């Protein structure tokens, strides 16, 4: 132990009231321990040797218990009460106290025995899923899924909810979200997307060069991705880019944000767009106000806002003609034998190709949300008891046929494709669609605020966009909830309009 | 949190008494948290981006406080008392309880305010040292050194000691070691080494090929080192080999042991021998009994025993004719342009070349311990108040002249060369010499027990040696203290005899 202990004062703008100072000291302690969990988790996916799993699980469990105890500590409650009685707090300081209370209230509502049972069951269930999926062993998996759903129902009852138990789950990932309004949003979206999909597929026909069958050497991909990551504004002195089976972002502190991607020699897009995607998450995590480090003001609002940042860079920026007008000549020079004969328009058609498919993570921008709509319909039905785990396979297959016109050939590429359900992540999928809608909405607002934005992107200049996102989103921390943030940043709450207009505009431009 | 919580039972051979079961659950919890600190520390030296330092320091401090609180928890004391009253415990189980009490007793004796002051001062002092050393700024460094020594004196008073305060520091790294016997051991050693050094230098003369000026491509070094590491018995499925500025080993769990080395294109020896050295540490950390994971029985006895494992593989094995009889032809084939003209005897002379020098970490086997002798003399004088920090530079230079016949050209290559003192590691250096002596002593005993050992090594077979060390050292955990372990393994306590005989034999063989 050769480190200096955390200093007990926070140098915020206003003179901090005493209970607030003590509160932030407790908060920074909790966040410091949560960062340690973040490192354990990052390391597990990127560095840990195979035999390290058992010990790692013990360290994760031990730290999680410590953190839970900290949230439940009566001293935290007392300081929160004292801060509520404090008239001198700034808006940001009030947000710190409000959000700490929110996290505390959730923690104390879950009995330790239930938390332990959920942790143990989801861990085992995830392992069962990993073994059962390649064998399409639905009989092994379904009872575990049923158990996980039942435990999450118990959790919802402990947490409480506004209208329906599923609200409690949504609220874990998207504070303030409600099942009813989410259902309406997704139904309206589906009503527009299904006919749009038909029109695009018809217009697309067999046109557009494909990159299938071409090769892209991995070292050259790495160099190109690293360059784009830096130029979009990710600070490599405060982060890393590594490789893992599934790309992800782990923000330990604003000064240490870790991204991963994965490379394939036959698929240029996989690493490129996952780097842009995780880069968007990473710029968010690097962009919190440093004076609020270790508090909820240095944390993302919600998964739906986090995903808006990744999707904006991946799609609105990364699949645009503006972006590739700048980068495509260099990309061609990097991979001359594969790209010399593919012009910019053909390349853009290729990266924006719409293809209804079985697998969510491979889906294009149009069909992606139809995957999410189906998952939401199934999750709410499961949670309401209208559907049993055993009936999920056929409900899934029916839904894929009606939403996307494709039929899974096996459960592994059907309802068992994602890890989420096996580890209890119910209420999580809808945040992906929230991210997609908000990305388009924010990008729209950024263009309104900055008429020169397109020209900047065509010139490979991203500072104006990063700065705008910093002001409107990153530096806000958890000051507002997702919808309030969207209202403040764009003038309206989350809506599908800008996203649908964005798709219409893009595909009209591509296919006339 | 998707991990299964630690199970509360330990499947040891005998039926475990109830307080013992509860005790091991607490122990495993503490060790799980300590492993998390280990990962934070490993990552800091190998992976962490530059801007991550501030957040990392907070996570380290927060976790260290949690661990300290756990050791001081009254429940731990009560369980230890209950275990003491338990007649059914096995020898190993008694060791677990005894060593946990030892660690607990040390933790509770240090007031939290002193622990915090030591942590903060040594952290700052280390930064001062890092800045002052390249500038030879003794005026900046000396007051910090004085402060660190004064804090360590206070710590010694809190911990208590048998004869002299320095005993308390020694005991932190080498339980049971005493200043008096350490002084005698080192004096006797010095009395033999100084004349031996003269004789070797005379015999060596200007003979022996040198590898200076030759080049060794790093990728080829990496492949060669990785092969040796696996063949000596390090399990790569339960560990990693990375690079860092200073090589080290971090054992998180027996299933996750991390080594580092460093490569230089102009220095074949640096990576090769540091890999063998850290590999020795690593095999120790991988070799604890799995059923005692998360207890002191899955932990090294002391630094002096740990160092015996690294030095044995680095020196007794790695600088021997037996070893290179097997590997040298392959090494020549790996680096043909640099080694084709260097025969085995010339190579052995080169890797065993004796050269009195200013820098400890570059020292050969003969002069290395003379560096340690000097540090011990100076540390004990500083601690006894017979020497002030301000007088250290000239005392150091005098000692180097009389022990080694060399005079430092600057403090950076003199008393400021090592990080240890700046971060308060007083009483630590002597364990390096204990490691050197014990390595020779253990290797001797292994040869006595296994007459075919030399032939095994000449055939590139290390399983017999690894297994012998496993039985005599690794699987013993903290059952015995360092001297008792040496007695059990070799028939005598730590002594300089085998080491001196080893050196005499080696240099007689090399130079006749």
Strand order of the largest sheet of chain A: 1-3-2
Helix-strand category of chain A: mainly alpha
Order of helices and strands of chain A: HHHHHHHHHEEEHHHHHHHHHHHH
Assembly state (oligomeric): homodimer
Whole-angstrom Rg of chain A? 23 Å
Strand content of chain A: under 5%
Describe the protein.
2 copies of one chain form a homodimer. By secondary structure, chain A is mainly α. Chain A has 21 helices and 3 strands. The first copy, chain A, has a 3-stranded mixed β-sheet with strand order 1-3-2, sandwiched between helices. At the A-B interface, helix 1, helix 2 and helix 5 of A face helix 1, helix 2 and helix 5 of B.
In brief:
The structure is a homodimer of 512-residue chains. Helix content of chain A is 63%, strand content 3%. Chain A is mainly alpha-helical.
Supply database-style keywords.
homodimer, mainly alpha, Neurolysin, domain 3, about 65% helix, disordered N terminus
Helices and strands, with pairings:
The structure is a homodimer of 512-residue chains.
Chain A: H1 18-46, H2 53-72, H3 74-84, H4 91-109, H5 112-132, H6 138-159, H7 165-173, H8 179-204, H9 218-232, E1 239-243, E2 249-253, E3 256-261, H10 268-286, H11 303-317, H12 321-334, H13 336-339, H14 344-351, H15 365-383, H16 392-404, H17 430-449, H18 453-458, H19 463-472, H20 482-490, H21 497-511
Parallel strand pairs in A: 1-3
Antiparallel strand pairs in A: 2-3
């Amino acid at each position: 132990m050769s480190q200096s202990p955390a200093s007990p004062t926070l140098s915020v703008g206003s003179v901090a009231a005493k209970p607030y100072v003590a509160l932030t000291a407790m908060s920074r302690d909790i966040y410091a321990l949560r960062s340690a969990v973040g490192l354990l988790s990052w390391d597990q996916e990127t560095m840990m040797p195979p035999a390290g799993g058992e010990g790692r699980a013990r360290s994760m469990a031990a730290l999680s218990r410590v953190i839970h105890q900290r949230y439940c500590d009566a001293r935290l409650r007392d300081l929160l009460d004292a801060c509520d009685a404090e008239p001198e707090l700034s808006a940001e300081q009030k947000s710190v106290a409000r959000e700490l209370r929110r996290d505390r209230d959730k923690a104390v509502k879950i009995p330790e025995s239930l938390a332990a049972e959920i942790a143990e069951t989801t861990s085992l269930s995830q392992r069962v899923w990993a073994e059962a999926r390649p064998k399409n062993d639905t009989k092994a998996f379904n009872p575990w899924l049923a158990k996980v759903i039942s435990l999450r129902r118990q959790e919802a009852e402990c947490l409480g909810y506004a209208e329906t138990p599923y609200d409690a789950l949504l609220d874990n990932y998207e504070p303030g979200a409600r099942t009813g309004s989410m259902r309406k949003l997704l139904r309206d979206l589906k009503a527009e997307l299904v006919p749009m999909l038909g029109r695009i597929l018809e217009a697309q026909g067999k046109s557009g060069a494909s990159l299938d069958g071409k090769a892209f050497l991995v070292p050259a991909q790495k160099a190109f991705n690293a360059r784009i990551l830096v130029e979009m504004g990710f600070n490599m002195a405060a982060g890393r880019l590594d490789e893992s089976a599934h790309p992800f972002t782990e923000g330990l502190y604003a000064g240490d944000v870790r991204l991963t991607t994965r490379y394939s020699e036959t698929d240029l897009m996989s690493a490129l767009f996952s780097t842009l995607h995780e880069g968007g998450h990473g710029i968010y995590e690097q962009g919190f106000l440093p004076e609020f480090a270790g508090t909820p003001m240095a944390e993302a609002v919600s998964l739906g806002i986090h995903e808006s940042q990744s999707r904006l860079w991946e799609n609105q920026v990364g699949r645009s003609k503006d972006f590739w007008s700048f980068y495509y000549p260099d990309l061609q020079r990097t991979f001359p034998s594969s790209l010399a004969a593919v012009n910019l328009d053909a390349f853009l058609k290729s990266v924006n190709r719409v293809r209804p498919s079985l697998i969510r993570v491979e889906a294009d921008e149009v069909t992606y949300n139809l995957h999410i709509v189906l998952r939401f319909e199934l999750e709410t039905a499961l949670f309401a008891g209208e559907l049993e785990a055993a009936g999920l396979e056929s409900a899934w297959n029916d839904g894929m046929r009606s939403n996307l016109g494709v039929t899974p050939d096996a459960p592994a590429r059907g309802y068992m494709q994602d890890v989420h359900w096996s580890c209890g992540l119910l209420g999580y999928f809808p945040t992906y669609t929230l991210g997609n809608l908000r990305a388009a909405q924010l990008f729209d607002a950024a263009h309104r605020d900055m008429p020169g934005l397109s020209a900047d992107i065509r010139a490979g200049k991203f500072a104006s966009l990063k700065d705008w996102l910093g002001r409107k989103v990153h530096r806000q921390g958890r000051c507002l909830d997702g919808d309030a943030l969207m209202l403040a940043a764009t003038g309206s709450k989350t809506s599908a309009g800008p996203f649908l207009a964005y798709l219409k505009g893009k595909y009209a431009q591509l296919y006339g």
